[in-house]
Amino acid sequence: MTYLIFILAITLNAVANILLKVGAEKTKESNNIFELLLGMATNPVTILAVFCFAAGMAAYNYVLMKTDLSVAYPIMTSVGYIIVLLASWLFLKETLTILQMSGIILIVAGVWMVAVN
């Protein structure tokens, strides 16, 4: 069960980051900081991103109750990075370079070494 909740936590965090980017692109730019903050706070996509962050944090907190931080944190951040990188490439049409793809391979190797512990 902990593994499934861990996958949920990682996924929610990655989705939240993607939604935050989409929300930022939909927020009207302004030189007035209060207008900008109001635009962010009332943007439905940004609100959904905040909800995903909160739900992901709750799931991650459960995982930390069952798993060492020294194992959970590297997996959470690195796998989340891979998901965000690939989703940004697929859905936001961001560039994915050979160097980034090589980095993904190194990250996967590192996650495997940490998780095997």
Summarize the structure.
With 117 residues, this protein is mostly helical.
How would you describe this protein?
This protein has 117 residues and is an all-alpha fold. It has one domain (2-115). Helix content is 84%, strand content 0%. It is built from five helices and no strands. It has helices at 2-26, 33-41, 44-66, 69-91, 98-115. Helix 1 packs antiparallel against helix 3 (44-66), helix 1 packs across helix 4 (69-91) and helix 4 (69-91) packs antiparallel against helix 5. The radius of gyration is 16 Å and the shape is flat. The mean pLDDT is 92.
Q: Let me know the largest β-sheet.
A: none
Low-confidence stretches: none
Q: State Rg.
A: 16 Å
N-to-C terminal Cα separation, in Å?
A: 19 Å
Structurally, the number of domains stands at 1
**Overall mean confidence score, pLDDT:** 92
Quaternary status of these chains?
Answer: single chain
Instruction: Please write the string of helix (H) and strand (E) elements.
Output: HHHHH
- Structural category is mainly alpha
Q: What is the total tally of β strands?
A: 0
Count of helical regions: 5
Helix proportion:
over 70%
Give the DSSP E fraction (strand runs of 2 or more residues): under 5%
Broad shape: flat
